[in-house]
Amino acid sequence: MRQLKSIFDFYIKSSLHLSICVAALLLITTLRLEQEPDFLILFCSFCASIVVYNFIKYASTLPYYFFVKNISIKKIQFLSFVSGFFLLVTIFFLKFQTILTGFFIFLFCVIYVIPVNRTKKNIRNYSRIKLFIVAFCWSSSSVFLPISDQSSFININTITLFFQRFFFVIIYTLPFEIRDLKYDSIMLKTIPQVYGLKKTKYFSYILIILFLLISLIIKPYNYIFIISDFIIAMVLCYIIHITQINQNKYFASFWIEGIPVFWLIIILLLKFIV
Questions:
Q1: At residue 163, does pLDDT exceed 90?
Q2: Residue 196 and residue 190: Cα distance in Å, rounded?
Q3: What is the DSSP letter of 34?
Q4: What is the mean pLDDT of residues 230-255?
Q5: How far apart are alpha carbons 69 and 23 in whole angstroms?
Q6: Helix or strand or coil: residue 121?
Q7: Is residue 14 within 8 Å of 50, Cβ to Cβ?
Q8: Which pLDDT does position 220 carry in this prediction?
Q9: Fewer CB within 10 Å: N-end or C-end of the chain?
Q10: How far apart are alpha carbons 217 and 141 in whole angstroms?
């Protein structure tokens, strides 16, 4: 039992779970736009998510890589380097337009964590910005990357889908912001810090309504996706309703983080049934 828990903790802490969720969002985009999924792009996005998120979480250990005594951290570092290697190898098989799109998104992610002034602050440390930068990175990568091999992948329809995904990621991230109220510096001025728990939840409900309204105008029109979006909206409403500052260890890091996978499963089941 202890061994299983150790494996599960590694799965969460190493960003494997999160990276699967990112890949699920990319696949949802291709299904929503009725495009053939490019599994090479999915694999690259999966590897890139491991590298980027583990860099954000464990960058402080890099200068001491060979001297880190924590076995779990060393395993995560090894996984990150292996993922980075596969990313560099497979990236050369992508189209130039996809590489360029991915590069700009990756550059934005790097700017997010690299200090931008002498106080060694990065952009995510500036008040009220962190959540929207995360939403932009997730939305742009999950909407534009999987269709970036097309000649005109940025159009009114994909921009509309981008905004729906942007609202989804904000809603999806707010339970983490609520959880982190106990740990975040008051200088961050996150939405829950500034407006409190109750108003944050009201804000989430408004975004869920916008998420559903946008679902009705995304082309091609398909009631399967409208139904799946409605189910996910109800799940998000319930999650927001029960979210509290004091959470179970895996409430956010596994169950909430896994919502994109659940969303993908719903779509696939509806396609199979209908």
A1: yes
A2: 10
A3: T
A4: 91
A5: 32
A6: coil
A7: yes
A8: 86
A9: N
A10: 21
Q: Which residue has the tokens 């989430």?
A: 204
Q: How many C-beta atoms lie closer than 10 Å to residue 48's C-beta?
A: 23
Choose among 37, 260, 32: nearest CA to 157: 32
Residue-number span of the structural domain to which 135 is assigned: 2-273
Structural domains of the chain, count = 1
| Structure tokens belonging to residue 166 | 């942007």
- Burial class from Cβ neighbours inside 10 Å (0-12, 13-18, 19+) for residue 27 reads buried
Sequence-distant (6+) residues with CB within 8 A of 222 are 32, 34
Tell me 70's DSSP state: -
Residue 169, CA distances (Å) to 29, 71, 84, 164 in order: 14, 32, 25, 9
pLDDT per residue over 173-184, tens digit each? 999 988 888 777
Written as one string, the DSSP assignment of 203-223 is HHHHHHHHHHHHHTTSSSP-H
Amino acid identity at 117: N
Rg (CA), the chain: 19
Q: Where are the beta strands (DSSP E) in the chain?
A: none
Mean pLDDT of the region 41-64 = 82
The Cα-based distances of 72 to 37, 164, 207, 260, 272 in angstroms read 34, 37, 38, 26, 40
Structure tokens given for 57: 């979480």
pLDDT at 156: 92
Measure CA 136 to chain center: 10
Three-state DSSP at 8 gives helix
* Mean pLDDT to the nearest integer, 24-43: 93
State the Cα angle at 258 between 8 and 94, rounded to 5°: 100
pLDDT in tens, 68-96: 666 778 888 889 999 999 999 999 899 88
